[in-house]
Amino acid sequence: MTTPDERTPGSGASSHEQADLRTYDTERHLPASHNPLPALNTVGSAKDPIAEEAFVEVQGSAEFAELTKRFRGFAFPMTAAFLIWYFGYVLLSVYAKPFMAQEIGLGHVNMGTLLGLLQFVTTFLITWLYMRHMSKNIDPLSAKLRAKLEGAGK
C-alpha cells in the first residue's frame, strides 16, 4: 500500500529521502538569516585591533617572561611527576604481578585496585592544584598583560 507521501519511481526524491528531510531538519521553521550562535559573530563591544608590534613588545617584557616562568615551573614538573606515577603503575601491573595481586586487608581489594583508584584521586588532585596555581599566580599577571595589550590597541 502506498501513502500519499511516497513517490512513484522516476518522480523525484524517494520516500526515504523525504523522511530524512522531515525528520532531521529540526531548524526548517527558522528563517534563512537565523544564526544559532550570534555570540560568535560579535563578542562584546567592537574593539580596535591590536597592532602586531604590541604583541612583540609584550612578548619581550619582563612580565611575560615571569608569566612563562611561573607556568612552566608548575606545569612541567607536575606533568613529569604524573607521567612517572602513571607509567610506574602500568609497569607494576605488567612486571610485578605478585605485588599487585596481594590483598591489602580491605576485603578482596588488592594493591593493583588500590593503586588504580589512586590514579583517579591523583588526577583530581592535580586538577585542583592546577586551578589554584593558575588563579593565584598566573591569572593576575595575565590580566595585567591583557590590559596592557588592549590599552596599546587604542
UniProtKB/TrEMBL annotation:
TM helices/strands, residue ranges: 74-96, 108-131
Pfam annotation, one family: DUF485
The UniProt record lists the keyword 4Fe-4S: no
UniProt region (Disordered), positions on chain: 1-25
Transmembrane helix as UniProt keyword: yes
Keywords carried by this UniProt record: Membrane, Transmembrane, Transmembrane helix
Coiled coil: none
Protein name: DUF485 domain-containing protein
Source species: Propioniciclava tarda
